[in-house]
Specification:
The complex is a heterotetramer of chains A (178), B (347), C (247) and D (75).
Chain B (H helix, E strand, L loop, with lengths): L3 E4 H11 L2 E6 L7 H12 L3 E4 L3 H13 L3 E6 L1 H16 L4 E9 L5 E4 L4 H5 L10 E3 L4 H18 L2 E7 H5 L1 E4 L25 E2 L9 H15 L3 E4 L6 E4 L2 H16 L4 E6 L1 E3 L14 E6 L6 H8 L6 E5 L7 H15 L1
Parallel strand pairs in B: 2-3, 2-4, 4-5, 5-8, 7-8, 12-13, 12-15, 15-16
Antiparallel strand pairs in B: 1-9, 5-6, 7-14, 11-13
Helix pairs in contact in B: 1-2, 1-6, 3-4, 9-11
Chain C lengths: L21 H14 L6 E5 L7 H4 L3 E4 L5 H11 L4 E7 H7 L1 H9 L5 E6 L2 E2 L5 E2 L18 H4 L5 H5 L6 E6 L3 H19 L5 E6 L3 H4 L3 H15 L3 E5 L2 E2 L3
Parallel strand pairs in C: 1-2, 1-3, 3-4, 4-8, 7-8
Antiparallel strand pairs in C: 5-6, 7-9, 9-10
Helix pairs in contact in C: 1-8, 4-5
Chain D lengths: L2 H4 L2 E5 L9 H5 L5 E7 L5 E5 L9 H5 L5 E5 L2
Antiparallel strand pairs in D: 1-4, 2-3
The chains are: A alpha/beta (178), B alpha/beta (347), C alpha/beta (247), D alpha+beta (75).
């Protein structure tokens, strides 16, 4: 079972990124839970959601330590980095998170997601770009499988945009480059 | 029907419509507002009525009227609004009508806070309104159960002609999980007791049934005794050899399940009783547990509530302790540690 | 000339005090429902107070609401069974004090129901306490020196409150004389006709004597209505077919 | 109103319902009603019709809160 927190500014699409991850995981036969930050957790305009993805019944949807952190902005790193388990993973949006000294006992993947999305003329696709990096780094699913899942997800919502797949693949490719 | 990813509040609302609910009257309050929001769009699609009431008082009484007219009707609220529903719930129970009331619990007395909590236990299970009545109280612990139990609540409400409560909380309501939705059912509003004009027959009076039932005291006692006997629901996890059994419902039962799993991995014999009905409290779950050294209730509230029913259920044969999460969600390891401490104390 | 038969809807003798105007209003409502052929499809919503005595004596389907909530309950019925004739029957304390919100919001939403509000200026069943409609200076068991409007506020005029709302029908009648009762019947008929033609919310307020709690003979009670109550609560039709009248 | 028609109707009274409030007496245009000496089983003195004065106008039916009066066909 993998515990993942997605965090960032409200409007960066962190909740949506989490929901897409949850949705495709479900389609691929995984058990999942998704919990938004809520109530007193909602401070300073930072939004977050936590997911658990596994092969058997997800007992507790809540967790205090996580295997992976998807950090869309600096605040997300400062708030959640310490909760990542040893040898855990941080996917950091390096467009927003600069000059941060990460812990030495975790694996950090830095992806300029906001820049990549902007360069692809899909500025709202930074979250999808981060998802690409997440899938590539965690190897939860084959990259192509997940990319198809993204297309299907948006097609079902009636707003398929090929640039989302593009963002996703560029995010995934960024991991390979690291 | 494939699995769908849904929020607890949405799954509950969709399942209610599929269970034949055709009327909702209610008032916005966090963290249940997705229920009226969802139903405001969904009910009209199925020929139902959604009405945003001027208050919870009006909402529950609209439900009373629609239920009296034979339609499956519901309202939902949270904490402060749930208090306002109590008058109407007592009337609906007294008139022996079916209805479903959802309380998505939030923290605190008074205004409190929108955080998840389990503070309304007494109000739901011990009769928040006046007089001699009980409601069957279902406590979903997942999005799937939010859907399944609302169907069950409508069926049981009709079977016993008594209001049923879904006691959820902000976590279960806001979280997203895959859910298999129930099949859509037809509706059957023209019941013999439903007011719709007398149509040549005797006129009907929907009011406290005590006026019309001989030996009402015995009748109503028997009704609730029957419900208490027949409708207990629970899930037991590793109670068969447990030294300490946790008792928790709703969201805290999920944390406890993890605690049991972690403790077992460490060789600590922890178990869990998860009440699915809070009234009737599943006292039957406590039989055959003579080997248990202590019970520990786990709740997200500032004051213990559940422990009273657990003490009654185990007839005080062993210590009953409580663990209170208060306004925050405890880590499962903290619960395990508390259980271990109780175990040491018993040696 | 025609027969004047007691309506069959009045299935039992009423249980009101001698001289109580509820009996007249009950009979007028029963006559109208029978004449309009609505006896079999009507659902009444009443709450608490003397009005609830009708539940055993007036032969339509009834729901008894919590105090003040008859309008909300009636709305619940009407919304799911629009083919039914739904009316509320409440006293002034019930509908205008504890239930003002439910009463006004039914009007604000222009719910297609008929509201009959009996204004006798006091809480009757509980023993003659001050109601929203109690006149300035009027003695009641909770205003023993007379209603002091500097403390309680002015008497509530529900017709004035509703007159600005987009409702179907609004009238105030009285049972203080044969002439008044004949007019009241026209108002009540117009109210139910409004509902049955889908014309929206209809409300008829009825000035009614309560000799018991007013501690007056019926004769004095009728004089009191004529001289003291009507000037404060004038009779007439104020909205007809959704249009404001000159009244 | 023709006299012959009038004779086809009669007023009947359900005196057990009367509560002796006197509304009918105060409203009768022909002064045909009076509070009698007799008391019904509820203990109320009952209003009675003076047949000689009664015009069968049935205003008593209209004003009686207790459904005492009816005008019916029959001699």
């Amino acid at each position: 079972m993998l515990s993942i927190t997605c965090a960032g500014f409200g409007g960066q699409g962190v909740l949506t990124a989490g929901l897409i991850l949850a949705h495709i995981s479900m389609i691929e036969g995984k058990r999942i839970t998704w919990v938004p930050s809520y109530g007193s957790e909602m401070r300073g305009g930072t939004a977050s959601c936590r997911l658990r993805i596994g092969d058997s019944e997800i007992l507790n949807p809540f967790f205090t330590t996580m295997g992976a952190l998807v950090a869309m902005n600096h605040d997300a790193v400062t708030r959640f980095e310490h909760s990542v388990v040893k040898n855990g993973l941080v996917i950091s949006n390096s467009t927003m998170v600069k000059d941060h000294a990460f812990r030495g006992d975790i694996r950090v993947v830095e992806v300029p997601a906001t820049d990549i999305a902007a360069s692809l003329k899909n500025p709202r696709g930074a979250n999808i770009t981060m998802l690409g990096a997440t899938i590539a780094a965690t190897r939860l699913f084959p990259v192509e499988t997940f990319a198809d899942g993204i297309d299907a997800y948006f097609a079902k919502k009636g707003r398929n945009n090929p640039l989302n797949r593009e963002c996703f693949l560029r995010g995934a490719a960024a991991v390979a480059e690291v | 029907m494939p699995l769908q990813l849904m929020k607890g509040n949405h799954a509950l609302s969709e399942a209610a419509v599929r269970a034949g609910c055709r009327f909702f009257g209610g008032y916005p309050i966090t963290p249940q507002s997705e229920i009226p929001e969802y139903l405001s769009a969904r009910l009209p699609q199925s020929g139902g009525i959604f009405l945003q009431a001027e208050s919870e008082l009006a909402g529950i009484n609209m439900v009373y009227g629609a239920a009296a007219a034979g339609f499956r009707a519901m309202t939902s609220s949270s904490g402060p609004g749930f208090s306002l529903l109590q008058e109407g719930i007592s009337y609906i129970a007294s008139a022996e009508l079916p209805a479903v009331i959802v309380d998505v619990q939030r923290y605190g007395s008074g205004l409190g806070d929108i955080s998840q909590a389990q503070s309304d236990y007494f109000q739901a299970t011990k009769g928040g309104g006046h007089g001699d009545y009980k409601c069957i109280v279902f406590a979903p612990a997942s999005v799937q159960e939010s859907a399944d139990l609302v169907v069950e609540a409508f069926d049981k409400a009709e079977e016993y002609r008594n209001p049923c409560i879904i006691l959820s909380d902000a976590s279960i309501a806001q979280m997203v999980e895959p859910v298999l939705l129930p099949e859509e059912r037809g509706i059957d509003p023209d019941k013999a007791w439903a007011v719709r004009g007398k149509h040549g027959g005797e006129f009907k009076r929907v009011t406290s049934t005590m006026y019309y039932i001989e030996d009402f005291d015995a009748y109503i006692k028997n009704k609730y005794d029957t419900m208490a006997h027949n409708e207990q629901r629970w899930e037991s996890v590793h109670t068969e050899d447990a030294d300490v059994v946790l008792v928790a419902y709703g969201i805290s039962s999920r944390i406890c399940k993890e605690a049991v799993s972690e403790a077992r991995a460490q060789g600590i014999r922890l178990g869990l009783i998860r009440p699915i009905t809070l009234w009737p409290f599943p006292v039957n779950a406590f039989s055959g547990l003579e080997h248990v050294k202590a019970f520990m209730t786990v709740e997200l509230s500032a004051l213990p509530r559940l422990d009273e029913d657990v003490k009654l259920a185990c007839e005080m044969r062993v210590p009953v302790r409580h663990f209170l999460g208060g306004v925050s969600i405890p880590d499962s390891s903290v619960i395990t540690e508390a259980a271990i401490a109780i175990l040491k104390e018993q040696r | 000339m025609v027969e004047k038969r007691i309506p069959q809807l009045l299935v039992e003798d009423n249980k009101f005090c001698p001289g109580c105007g509820h009996g007249n209003i009950n009979r007028v409502v029963a006559e109208v429902l029978e004449e309009m052929g609505l006896a079999d499809t009507t659902v009444g919503s009443l709450a608490v107070g003397c009005a609830c005595l009708m539940m055993d004596t007036f032969g339509v389907d009834w729901i008894q609401a919590p105090h003040g909530r008859a309008a909300a309950v009636g709305v619940g019925v009407k919304r799911v069974r629009p083919e039914c004739c739904v009316f509320t029957y409440q006293g002034d304390g019930d509908s205008l004090a504890i239930g003002l919100s439910e009463t006004l919001y039914a009007a604000i939403r222009n719910e297609n129901i008929t509201a009959i509000i009996v204004n006798n200026g006091i809480f009757g069943m509980t023993g003659g306490q001050m109601a929203p409609t109690t006149l300035s200076g009027q003695r009641t068991t909770t205003s023993p020196k007379g209603r002091d409007v500097s403390i309680t506020g002015q008497p509530l005029n529900i017709v004035n409150q509703c007159r600005q709302l987009p409702i179907g029908y609004l009238a105030r009648g009285s049972v203080a004389s044969a002439k008044d009762i004949n007019k009241l019947k026209k108002y009540i008929r117009a109210a139910f006709e409004t509902q049955m033609s889908g014309g929206g919310y209809s409300l008829v307020e009825v000035l009614s004597p309560c000799p018991t709690n007013w501690k007056m003979s019926l004769e004095k009670s009728l004089e009191h209505i004529e001289n003291d109550v009507k000037p404060i609560y004038p009779l007439g039709e104020f909205i007809k077919k959704g249009e404001k009248t000159d009244a | 109103m023709r006299k012959s028609k009038l004779s086809e109707y009669k007023m009947i009274q359900h005196l057990e319902r009367c509560k002796g409030c006197g509304f009918c007496i105060s409203q009768c245009p022909s002064d045909a009603l009076y509070l009698s000496e007799s008391v019904n089983s509820k203990g109320y003195p009952v209003a009675k019709i003076d047949e000689g004065k009664c015009t069968k106008c049935a205003i008593c039916y209209t004003v009686c809160p207790d459904y005492v009066f009816e005008r019916v066909k029959g001699a």
